[in-house]
Design brief:
This protein is α+β, with helices and mostly antiparallel strands. 44% of the residues lie in helices and 19% in strands. It has 16 helices and 13 strands. A 6-stranded mixed beta sheet has the order 1-2-8-3-7-6, sandwiched between helices. The N and C termini lie far apart (59 Å).
Length: 437
């Protein structure tokens, strides 16, 4: 019943926050932990988002997958509670916890009622500071991860993306799956998981955001209690990744009726002065669904695919400009030809005024819809911190979109859209297509 109540509160919070201005306070706890806070006292409910920079990139040599396995075990027993007891305690408190990792970050999410704040945070504290890592839980979660790795090894989409990463970033953590390989995951021990926790969950890489029924004083005390005993310093961050791909085509034979294609080249940093011009350019080219040039040319006009898209991928230690398409084996070569042609047109001619105005309307109109509740707002705010964005970014973001000109996009297109550097990884049995690497 309490979980139903928590879900109802989330829906009610949507009605109150979606229309409201997001007023962010920057606070520092007595113990020196900084956080961003949006107070919303109309409903007794709070969302808390915690991020640690580094994530699975910090796996020790030969221990790939350790951080991913460790994070999967954080709510599988902590303190004096085994996995079942921990889940039951969270259920009784109507508290919701989430733990996940990516290459660049480790994420902790919490949602709790004001009346249960102290007890919910005490429970979360045990997961963050004294996880049990019982052997039966390790074996159970390890088996789930192994099953996922085996499934990914048969998935053409995963094979295509993984192959691109392997070729682009050989020797860097980005080149391998954060889940690890079958051999590395099988060899992980409890000591490896404890080491992964110490490496990643430290205060020197911490970012926090909270939205809801909590004051700055209450949040400061909560953060010191919850996070104050974590190690002050974690493992060294990795070096920047060197992009190693040149233009061309890589073929990965696979018995499937349609080929899956990942394509891309080096991208642009999130803090680059040209980022918003690049963002609008990509929205027009392949990032706005059926309104994009790629969808129009590859799907609507020629019927070569159900979907084709492109996106900017600025990571902490490398940047990519990526895309994906899937076509029947006898039509994938034509799909690639059309994508190359559109790439060249974009590089040479930029975009039109109508396209730019349409993209601005789309992006500025859609932006407020992201703020649809305490959880999404907290997630956005902690993401802003991770990207080094200022506290007033939400208020100024649409102004930055609207400030982009045709000349800006023409300049960025010539800088970024380099047809000679575009690389395609094709998984399948494509007809009329040859590898060039």
């Amino acid at each position: 019943m309490k979980q139903i109540y928590l879900a109802l509160i989330a829906l009610l919070t949507f009605a109150t926050t979606a229309q409201a201005e997001v007023k962010i306070q920057q606070i520092t706890s007595p113990g020196g932990i900084t956080a961003w806070l949006v107070e919303e006292h109309s409903i007794p409910f709070t969302s808390l988002e915690i991020r640690f920079k580094g994530g699975a990139n910090l796996d020790a040599a030969g221990k790939r997958g350790a951080t991913n396995l460790m994070v999967g075990l954080l709510e599988e027993g902590a303190g004096d509670k085994d996995a079942r007891q921990f889940a039951a305690a969270a259920e009784r408190l109507a508290a919701s916890f989430g733990f996940s990792t990516r290459n660049d970050s480790l994420s902790v999410s919490a949602k709790f009622l004001s009346e249960n704040r102290k007890a919910a945070m005490a429970l979360l504290q045990t997961a963050l500071q004294t996880p049990r890592f019982d052997q039966d839980a390790i074996d159970r979660v390890r088996a789930q991860i192994v099953s996922g790795i085996q499934s990914d090894a048969k998935d053409p989409d995963k094979i295509s993306g993984r192959t691109f990463d392997e070729l682009a970033f050989a020797g860097h953590p980005y080149a391998t799956s954060r889940s690890g390989a079958l051999e590395s995951v099988a060899a992980l021990t409890r000591d490896d998981l404890l080491a992964a926790k110490l490496a990643t969950m430290a205060r020197d890489r911490l970012h926090v955001a909270a939205v809801g029924d909590i004051t700055p004083t209450q949040l400061g005390a909560l953060l010191d209690e919850l996070l104050g005993d974590l190690p002050a310093v974690g493992a060294d961050m990795p070096e920047r990744a060197k992009y190693q791909l040149k233009g061309g085509v890589t073929l990965v034979p696979y018995d499937t009726p349609q080929s899956v294609v990942t394509f891309g080249l080096e991208g642009i940093k999130r803090d680059d002065d040209d980022f918003f011009a690049a963002y609008l350019m990509n929205t027009i080219f392949g990032g706005s669904g059926r309104q994009s040039r790629l969808m129009e040319e590859v799907r609507e006009k020629r019927g070569l695919t159900y979907g084709v898209y492109s996106y900017l991928l600025p990571m902490d230690y490398a940047e990519l400009y990526m895309g994906s398409v899937a076509s029947a084996n006898d039509r994938v070569a034509e799909s690639i030809d059309v994508i190359r042609t559109e790439w060249i047109k974009l590089a040479e001619n930029g975009v039109t005024e109508d396209e730019l105005n349409g993209a601005k309307t789309y992006l500025t109109g859609a932006y407020p819809l992201r703020f649809d509740g305490n959880g999404p707002i907290a997630n956005i705010m902690v993401g802003m911190q991770m990207q080094g964005l200022p506290v007033d970014y939400i208020a100024t973001r649409n102004d930055k979109v609207n400030a982009v000109t045709l000349d800006d996009i023409a300049r960025v297109a010539k800088r970024m859209v380099r047809p000679e550097d575009l690389h395609f990884v094709v998984v399948g049995q494509p007809e009329g297509l040859e590898a060039s690497d």
